[in-house]
Backbone:
């Protein structure tokens, strides 16, 4: 493990270790420790020096704020559970920095402990007293705040134990309301408009949740969605639909204009239809144009793949420079490659 700074900011480099992959979280649970009361001036390297005497360390970090200042706590992953236990026992005698067993939070359980809920898709003229009566069926309401926007009304409902004793009362009531009311059609709602009820979240948390939901949806549609390019310029959505609909039901078509020509996204309702369409239409010629069709790649994943490919290419170039080696691509691009091969074949025939 090496520690260094870039632009005055503390950084760390770790040797690649398959055991540290996210898929192994449960296996490494016993080897992880949480370290509290870390002095604000202590950096990654200082924490390493303090705990490495207790056993081999796979990775560690001091948790930092956005401005790279210390939060006063950190995490260490030891080589095995026995070493982690030893570190916890030894550090308990240290009043300054204490290691504790790491216990990850279950966010799903945490979310169930929220006693505030958010509801939308409420018809504009839906009365407040009727709305309150509907939510009151699931517990004692501490407060109900109703607001209006361009498409209807939204509500924030808070449940709480009237006696102020049972802390789990409010979250339990909120969860019941979500389970029973989400997806319900209210009187006066337009066709297809259903009540949306979820735990109330901060705006920043909600934005993260939206991104996750969008990514999940895109992932679920990946095998149904085709990226199509190099088709004739006059083609519009109707023409694309007439060509692609013969292979299955289409959910939607999105036509885009690019610098080097138009391109489109054709999303089928079933992944099998997309596979058949790709097999039949890829490299097919229309009006002198040869179609190029690929399965749609999520933008975020495509960016990661491009970065990985660039990193791999840079690393191979670095290795070649260090060893003085050259790649097969360098060999095949040699201007006298044909003559060299012919001479080699002549020598082999003479030696037989």
Residues:
């Amino acid at each position: 493990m090496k520690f260094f700074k870039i632009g005055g900011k503390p950084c760390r480099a770790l040797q690649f270790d398959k055991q540290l992959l996210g898929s192994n979280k449960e296996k490494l649970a016993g080897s992880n420790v949480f370290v509290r009361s870390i002095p604000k001036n202590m950096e990654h390297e200082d924490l390493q020096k303090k705990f490495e005497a207790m056993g081999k360390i796979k990775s560690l970090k001091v948790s930092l704020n956005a401005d790279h200042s210390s939060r006063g706590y950190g995490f260490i992953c030891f080589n095995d559970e026995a070493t982690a236990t030893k570190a916890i026992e030894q550090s308990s005698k240290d009043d300054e920095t204490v290691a504790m067993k790491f216990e990850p939070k279950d966010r799903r359980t945490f979310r169930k402990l929220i006693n505030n809920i958010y509801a939308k898709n409420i018809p504009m003229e839906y009365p407040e007293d009727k709305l309150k009566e509907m939510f009151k069926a699931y517990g004692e309401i501490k407060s109900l705040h109703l607001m209006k926007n361009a498409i209807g009304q939204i509500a924030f409902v808070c449940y709480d134990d009237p006696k102020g004793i049972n802390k789990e009362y409010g979250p339990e009531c909120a969860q019941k309301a979500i389970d029973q009311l989400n997806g319900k059609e209210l009187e006066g709602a337009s066709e297809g408009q259903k009540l949306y009820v979820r735990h109330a979240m901060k705006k920043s948390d909600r934005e993260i949740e939206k991104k996750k939901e969008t990514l999940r949806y895109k992932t679920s549609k990946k095998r149904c969605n085709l990226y199509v390019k190099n088709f004739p310029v006059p083609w519009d959505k109707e023409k694309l639909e007439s060509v692609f609909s013969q292979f299955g039901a289409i959910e939607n078509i999105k036509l885009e204009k690019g610098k080097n020509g138009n391109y489109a996204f054709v999303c089928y309702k079933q992944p099998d239809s997309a596979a058949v369409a790709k097999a039949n239409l890829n490299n097919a010629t229309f009006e002198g144009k040869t179609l190029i069709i690929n399965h749609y790649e999520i933008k975020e994943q495509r960016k990661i793949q491009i970065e990985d490919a660039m990193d791999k290419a840079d690393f191979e170039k670095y290795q070649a420079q260090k060893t003085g080696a050259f790649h097969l691509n360098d060999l095949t691009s040699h201007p006298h490659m044909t003559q060299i091969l012919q001479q080699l074949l002549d020598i082999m025939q003479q030696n037989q």
Q: What stands out?
A: Residues 307 and 343 are 41 Å apart (CA to CA).
